[in-house]
Amino acid sequence: MLEPRYDPKLIARLWETTEPKVRLPEKLGSEFFNPAGPMPVHQDSRRGYHRYFMRGKAILKRNGVMLGSYTKDVSRQGVGFLSPVPLLPLQRVQLHLINGTELKLEVARCRRVDQNCFDCGARFAL
């Protein structure tokens, strides 16, 4: 069986055409994309797995609607991302990364950062 060809520009094109898109607040600015590698560990952290920075554009698919999103971080258990709309806990979504990977997720938390910017955390779902 033939493998589908991945077009590296596909997510970038989709991101440009989707509405709504996340609007980064000025307080995050261009420095949002700078961090790379493992995230700092806090002594009072209750996390089971270490997180790693993963900053970039992504397509969030919710109820068949595509939204422009940004990824924040990743761990063995899930992904942090920014959404342009609020999401509900236990809601199932898909996140399409710039490298062509599709992640099936279950939302664990979502909090408003600014207008058109919600900080979300989700666990990997089957």
Please describe what this structure looks like.
The chain contains 1 helix and 6 strands, in the order αββββββ. With 126 residues, the protein is mostly beta strands. The radius of gyration is 15 Å and the shape is globular. The mean pLDDT is 86.
Domains counted in the coordinates: how many? 1
- In percent, how much strand structure appears in the residues? 35-45%
The tally of strands reads 6
What is the CATH superfamily? predicted glycosyltransferase like domains
Identify the strand order in the major beta sheet: 1-2-3-6-5-4
pLDDT below 50 for ≥5 consecutive residues: which ranges? none
Distance between the termini: 24 Å
Q: Overall mean pLDDT score?
A: 86
Q: Determine and state the CATH class.
A: Mainly Beta
Largest sheet: 6 strands, antiparallel, barrel
Here the CATH topology equals: Thrombin, subunit H
User: Structural class per helix/strand content?
Assistant: mainly beta
Shape designation = globular
Number of helices: 1
Oligomeric organization of the protein chains: single chain
CATH architecture: Beta Barrel
Query: Any idea what the radius of gyration is?
Result: 15 Å
Order of helices and strands: HEEEEEE
Helix share, percent: under 10%
